Amino acid sequence: MLPLFWNPKSRKCLVVGGGDVATRKVSLLLQCGVSVSIVSPRLSRNLQEPVNRGQVAYTAREFSLSDLDGIDLVIAATDNSALNQSIAQSCKQRNILVNVVDSRDTSSVIFGSLVDRDPVQVAVSSGGASPVLARSLRSRLEAYIPAAFGELSKLVSTYRPVVKSTLHSPHERQKFWESILEGPVAELVLSGFLDDAKRMLERQLDDWRNKTVTSGEVYLVGAGPGDPDLLTFRALRLMQQADVVVYDRLVSKPILDLVRRGAEKIYAGKKSSNHTIPQEGINALLVRLAKEGKRVLRLKGGDPFIFGRGGEEIETLVDEGITFQVVPGITAASGCATYAGIPLTHRDYSQACIFVTGHQKGEGADLHWDALAKKDQTVVFYMGLSSVGIICEKMIEHGLEKHMPAALIQQGTTPEQKVVVGTLEDLPARVAAEQIQPPTLIIIGEVVRLHKTLQWFQPKPPSAP
């Protein structure tokens, strides 16, 4: 198959048939501006509407060879396979393009599944082998390609003459457009800020004209709890256009594999009392890379603004005048609890939910245990594996029953997920017996009782490869 795009202007199309299949074809043709006529003894109710509106010419009778006169494209969509084949043969003899529904061997052209971001169009075809598969792939592309992509194309079309007259080198123009389409201008368009995008494009064109070195940009992106399917579309888009990625220990390998292949990767992981790069060093690194004109992806596990120190990092960017974006991710409490079948709130068990970390800013700082040890709420402890004994002890000491349900989740949302369920009294011993490894999450509250009946995610068994 040779994929081609056909200009429908001043073209005439004949649809033979008036059923549901013909309806879908006519709808597509009308969207593309084709002049459509239908020949069929009967019409479906949906086809009658465009006929009544004068959008389609309709002849109520059986097909005749004379109907092919002056026609550029024919769609045979009757429920009579012999008639469809006869129409196809007549079209081929006259060098008329023909599409026979559900018959790729008889057709000279095949319709692809279309993603329309006017004026950008993407067509997907399986060569007629599996239209359902083509539609499935199209639905994924629909989700991945932003709705405003057409506006981005129109912006480029508008400014192409200006850019061509300003930047005389083809290579220079190519690099300029790459910076526009993979940088903050494109993000402004896709976010709906078209006027701001135009102003920024014009400023950047002035910078290129004057050979002014422009600063890069930082993308602070939440990678979620581990499952790549939980990434947001925006996160994936920015991951695909980064020049360099600075990533944490909590970013799973399958997610890191989705970063643009040519991007430089810098590990900035942290374990308790063991930081590959101190936080101040990370802040300075982001500034330096951006000032070198690079698109910097700061990729953090979970959500960057929930125990991710994202606020500290962008404070430095603000001080240095660096452009940045923040993309939220599914925080570990939400993702891991969901994959463990533990709702964080439930009308019968919990009317509040509190997220807590044992890692405080000041050494020796304590938690507000009296506020945490309440019966009708759920408490989630991030990074609490090494403190599970102290946490359970303190919750009992400050008022919770020792039989209060509690759970620890290891590497939630990934194939290595493990859930240890117990009570405040016995959870530390259960965790010790399981030889749990971080990252982990501790959930305390009556909602843990629901794990047994609501668990749905099946991680791989220990013996699986």
Describe the structure.
It is a single chain. The protein is an alpha/beta fold and 465 residues long. The chain has 3 domains: 12-111, NAD(P)-binding Rossmann-like Domain (Rossmann fold), CATH 3.40.50; 215-330, Cobalt-precorrin-4 Transmethylase, domain 1 (3-Layer(aba) Sandwich), CATH 3.40.1010.10; 335-454, Tetrapyrrole methylase, C-terminal domain (Methyltransferase, Cobalt-precorrin-4 Transmethylase, Domain 2). 36% of the residues lie in helices and 19% in strands. It contains 17 helices and 19 strands. Helix 5 (149-166) packs parallel to helix 8 (194-209). It is flat, with a radius of gyration of 30 Å. The protein starts with 11 loop residues before the first strand and ends in an 11-residue tail after the last helix. The model is unreliable at 360-364 (pLDDT under 50).
